[in-house]
Specification:
- Its main location: cytoplasm.
- This protein has about 375 residues and is an alpha+beta fold.
- About 30% of the residues lie in helices and about 25% in strands.
- The chain is built from eleven helices and 15 strands.
- The protein has a seven-stranded mixed β-sheet with strand order 10-12-7-13-11-15-14, sandwiched between helices.
- It is globular.
- The chain starts with a helix and ends in a 5-residue tail after the last strand.
Length: about 375
């Protein structure tokens, strides 16, 4: 008997092989709260522990990795893109002070190559384990004729929990609070449409070695997004209510994302001289004929997360984060005094928040 579905381009047997290859990595993220294992129609997560909360709030986030996947596909290197996905989703959840519980993923591809799918999911699983997130389910969808055979896209969603009276955000931010910048690992997962255009215009291939970038271009660009969740939750537990707000520096850049978590009427000037962007930003900007300042609304320029903390806790927070492998430093201060806010970025993505601008010059 012929398999008409296979003749149409969908290989269900390959999908089954992919599941077998990824099962161990996924199962490694499961604690006793996960019921049913891998392969069910729905993932099950026991939330009995939430009865210990006075008023538990569920936090959820969904995202993808964007065009960074094009570089992974070009190099046929798929083991890091999963960490990018987890970081984009789970590090958004910690912004409100929530502890992640579980995550699901979705991979759309033109053709299921079991080893490729397992490599992607293996990266997701490793990052989930590092952030204390159970990977409870997912879907790999084969779309022949719609997606090219070697192309794919990844997306995911996660759920976390936070006590209602512990939610972080603009309501907690006060005049005099200190803004702590936390280092990124590089480009993370935003602004890759600009990155890819710069390389194309420069005539640099992803497999080309670049002395300026310090290695094979694509491998440098695939440096995975830093995971902030576990160290930040540790800081929140350690210094209690001294952490007032967090901002994940993703699409839109530094100023816009910080403005989203500031109260209306407040403003911050972030001092560029407090940090030096990594070489990858300088090289790409130079190749594109841009000043670093021109890219501040696109790339993170070395700052992946920002914490707004009480002034007397700033030293403890920076020390705790740096000790956990996340270099952190004071980059600004929250002000509420009246002033002309011309040149500031005010709010973003529909949020009428505070105002932010970057001042000074980056360290060399």
């Amino acid at each position: 008997m012929t398999d008409s579905y296979a003749e149409a381009g969908v290989d269900t047997a390959a999908g089954d092989r992919a599941v077998e290859l990824m099962k161990a990595a996924v199962a490694a993220t499961h604690g006793s709260e996960v019921l049913g294992g891998v392969g069910g129609f729905a993932g099950l997560f026991d939330v009995s522990a939430l009865t210990a909360y006075r008023r538990p709030l569920l936090a959820t986030s969904t995202d993808g990795v964007g065009t960074k996947v094009a570089i992974a596909q070009a190099l046929d290197k798929h083991d890091t893109i999963g960490q990018d996905l987890v970081a984009m989703v789970v590090d958004d959840i910690v912004v409100v002070g929530a502890r992640p519980l579980f995550m699901t993923d979705y991979i759309a591809c033109g053709k299921v190559v079991p080893e490729r799918i397992a490599s992607i999911v293996g990266g997701i699983a490793r990052a989930c384990a590092e952030t204390g997130t159970a990977l409870v389910g997912g879907e790999t969808a084969e779309h022949p004729g719609l997606v090219d055979p070697d192309d794919y896209d990844v997306a995911g969603a996660a759920v976390g929990v936070v006590e209602a009276d512990a939610v972080l955000g603009p309501e907690r931010v006060q005049h005099g609070d200190v803004v702590v910048a936390i280092a990124s690992s590089g480009l993370h997962s935003n602004g890759f449409s600009l990155v890819r255009k710069i390389l194309a215009d420069r005539g640099v291939g992803y497999a080309d070695r670049s002395d300026e970038l310090g290695g094979v271009a694509g491998e440098v660009l695939l440096e995975p997004t830093r995971l902030y969740t576990t160290p930040l939750l540790g800081v929140i537990d350690e210094v209690g209510g001294a952490v007032h707000a967090l901002s994940h520096v993703t699409g839109g850049g530094i100023a816009a994302n910080l403005a989203r978590v500031l109260p209306r009427g407040s403003w911050v000037e972030l001092d560029r001289s407090t940090w030096a962007p990594q070489p990858v930003f300088r090289v790409l900007a130079e190749w594109g004929g841009l000043a670093l300042e021109d890219t501040e609304g696109t790339w993170n320029l070395g700052v992946g997360m920002l914490a707004i903390v009480a002034q007397d806790a700033a030293s403890a927070v920076t020390h705790r984060l740096t000790s956990a492998g996340l270099p952190a430093w004071v980059a600004g201060r929250v002000e509420t005094t009246a002033r002309d806010l011309g040149g500031f970025v005010a709010g973003a993505k529909g949020v009428e928040g505070g105002a932010v601008r970057l001042v000074g010059a980056y360290r060399g």
